[in-house]
Amino acid sequence: MVAMSDTVTLTIDGKSVELPLITGSEGERAIDIGKLRATTGLVTIDAGFKNTASTLSGITFLDGEKGILRYRGYPIEQLAEKSTFVEASYLVLYGELPTKEQLANFRERLTMHSLLHEDMKHFFDGFPAKGHPMGILAAMIGSLSAYYPDSLDPDSDTDLHIARLMSKVSTIAAFGYKRSIGQPFMYPKNSLDYGENFFRMMFGVPSEDYEPDPLAVAALNALLILHIDHEQNCSTSTVRLVGSSDASIYASVSAGISALWGPLHGGANQAVMNMLREIRDSGGDYRGFMEQVKDKSSGRRLMGFGHRVYKSYDPRAKILKTMADKVLPKMGASDPLLDIAQELEQIALKDSYFVERNLYPNVDFYSGITYRALGIPENMFTVMFSLGRLPGWMAQWREMNQDPRHVIGRPRQIYTGAGERNYVPVGDRKGK
Ligand code: CMC
Predict the structure, then answer these.
(1) Closest Cα to atom 9 of ligand 1
(2) How many domains, in total, are found in the chain?
């Protein structure tokens, strides 16, 4: 629900223009500057889009001051506790919790599409065995558009592409892992649910039965739900921007995977583990480490801390912290790095540098510890983030694609380069 009743008046060079005010369903307000350039010749500038809403969206609500996150109106805490990844994905994608029948149909669609085209298996031979799984995942997902050329038509069956992507991504992720450790691929098994299947494809071997630990499956389920969507973050904005040119959903998601990889975004979960190990190897020199991350010239940051939108505790981190504290011991998993993370968190939360800047743990601070307990290798942590975020990327792509008003994304700039000058032949140029 969007209200567009009020206006604001902007006065520039003695001339006034009325700009519409837009109010979202949770009371957030925005000035619509869409006609500003046409009426005044001015554009706005906002590095990193810190103050710019790029779209209207009915998918996720996030209040960074209050630490609220809801998918389609449902609080993340309830979904993480009570829902399943497949059900919550349906909710995010299609707007409502599914009926029994809708859920069964959705599950069946996912099952039907979980196999990879056999030719695609050969791709894995072309990557170095120790190549980073995020590079492999982005390439494999991008290449799906070559196998499904119908996706090049923006009006093709989006729901079919969604089902294909959602089930194939976990197969691709697990195949990549198997190849990196020199084991045979484990094909998906139809009778298993999403999490069980993923664990079996990752850790099963053809010669033996494999039964995943139900606690591990439950933990994975909650982890994936926590990552499903997070409004217009870097990777989601990338998916929308690529998709706005009518590029296929496979190409758009592949670009999103690349955007997620960076350590300031989803790659932070792997970077957190490196940081915790570094503190351990220094014999617990927390003070020295904190001095470094507060010193801007060091180029270092406290990984897993801070967020563009949250200025209070990230609700996803809260859930993960509880999970790390309570669930992992039940699984018989104790991790000295968890103790270091908890100690580091306490120190940072009392440090005036972090207090003044409202820097709190984000989702990546405790997710790595949990993935480790599930036996996921560290270089696959951001792949796990991708599996979780995929339904969100696709929901955002679908929302944009279905909006008849959507236009290609194309920001303006303020040029700061040289003025016009004449070409000089190479022999006449001065300097070395
Ligand atoms: N360690 C040290 N200082 C920090 C940190 C940090 N983790 N995060 C922010 N700051 C400082 C920053 O230097 C700046 O200080 P000052 O005002 O003196 O210049 C101030 O806090 C505001 O930071 P910012 O860079 O303007 O904030 P941002 O909104 O542009 O950046 C961020 C957000 C997530 C990139 C940043 O907090 C960061 O680099 N965190 C570490 C990486 C990380 O954990 N990323 C995962 C984010 S959550 C998962 C996801 O969705 O991507």
Answers:
(1) 306
(2) 3
Q: Ligand 1 mean position to 338 CA, how many Å? A: 22
Residue from 227, 230, 265, 307 carrying the catalytic annotation: 307
Low-confidence stretches of the chain (pLDDT beneath 70)? 1-5
3-state DSSP assignment of residue 163 = helix
Question: pTM here?
Answer: 0.94
- Residue 364 is among the residues annotated as catalytic for this protein: yes
Q: Tell me how far the alpha carbon of residue 307 lies from the centroid of ligand 1, in angstroms.
A: 6
Q: How big is the chain by its Cα radius of gyration, in Å?
A: 24
At 328 the pLDDT is 78
Pocket flag, ligand 1, residue 308 (CB < 6 Å)? yes
- Do 27 and 138 have their domain in common? no
pLDDT computed for residue 5 by the predictor: 66
Domain of 16, in residue numbers: 3-53
Ligand 1 center–CA 259 separation, angstroms: 17
Residue 260 Cβ < 6 Å to ligand 1: no
Same domain assignment for residues 333 and 350: yes
> What pLDDT score does 2 carry?
64
Same domain for 273 and 357, yes or no, is yes
Q: What burial class does residue 412 get, using C-beta atoms within 10 Å of its C-beta: 0-12 exposed, 13-18 middle, 19+ buried?
A: exposed
Does residue 265 have an active-site annotation?
A: no
**Neighbour-count burial of 317, counting CB atoms closer than 10 A to its CB (0-12 exposed, 13-18 middle, 19+ buried):** buried
- Is residue 307 located within the same domain as residue 255? no
